[in-house]
Amino acid sequence: MPAKAGPPATISVAIPLYNKRREIARTIQSVFDQTFQQFEILVIDDGSTDGGADIVAQIGDPRVRLIRQANAGVSAARNHAISEAKTELIAFLDADDEWKPGFLAAIWDLRERFPEAGLYATAYERHLPNGGVAQLTLSQVPPAPWSGIIDNYYRAAFDDALIWSSAVAVPKQVFAEVGGFPVGIRLGEDLDMWLRIALRYPIAYRNTSLAIYDQAASNRAMQQNHCNDNLVMAQTAADALAQGLVTADQEDDLREYVYMYQIL
Question: Rounded to whole angstroms, how far apart are CA atoms 95 and 77?
Fold first, then answer.
């Protein structure tokens, strides 16, 4: 991985790392391969024990910062990255996922066209354990290569998970309003964050698969069979409805969206 000096960063890439030695170099390389090069990379090592952080430490590129913390979970790692970020736009990438070369360019294009948005995301594809590739099913979103503002986030996410934690960027100031990722939540912490943002801001989206969700990766959280006692975003939705944050024509869509995840 070559060391480069380039223009000042305008996007911070937040990578939480926990025992992903097998994948982390590939993940970081996918950032280096971006057509948009004005980035910094923050790898938050969440107490890894497999030597993955040592691989990061050996990367000779000044754009990469390795920050170590005692194991506290993925939400704490993401929140740590947010606090350390030197730019006003933070893109998230899990340590076992990848970006296609045009991802950051697409995110920056959305940022420039829709500065009022609180979240910028693209479609993504799932790489399955059997070697197959699954594309998203998004019947409520115009087909690729559409990009624009999502009119109804809750309805748009009925068919599939519209937003994935490795295909999204959020302005730093948005976290000052909605708060950080919920610490101590084993699953669904990201869904709660996207919902909290969608309740207050427009969502800008490009319906082109520019990120890869690796479902064949090692040590995946979804393989741990851990569930929360309650779905954290259900309380977020209930509070939003009580506070009148949801327009009347979208109240039923929000309820149905939450019910769907409660059943899952």
Answer: 12
CB-CB contact of 30 with 102 (8 Å): no
Q: Encoding tokens for residue 131?
A: 């070697």
Is the per-residue pLDDT at 225 higher than 90?
no
Closest CA to 52 of 43, 65, 63: 43
Determine the length of the chain. Answer: 264
First to last CA, the chain: 41
Q: Give percent above pLDDT 90 in the chain.
A: 82
DSSP letter for each residue of 30-95:
HHHT-S---EEEEEEEES-SSSHHHHHHT---TTEEEEEE-S--HHHHHHHHHHH--SSEEEE--T
Average pLDDT, the chain: 92
Q: How far apart are CA 62 and CA 40, in angstroms?
A: 8
The pLDDT confidence band at residue 232, using thresholds 50, 70 and 90, is confident
Other Cβ atoms less than 10 A from the Cβ of 140: the count is 17
Stretch 39-64: mean pLDDT: 96
DSSP state of 181: P
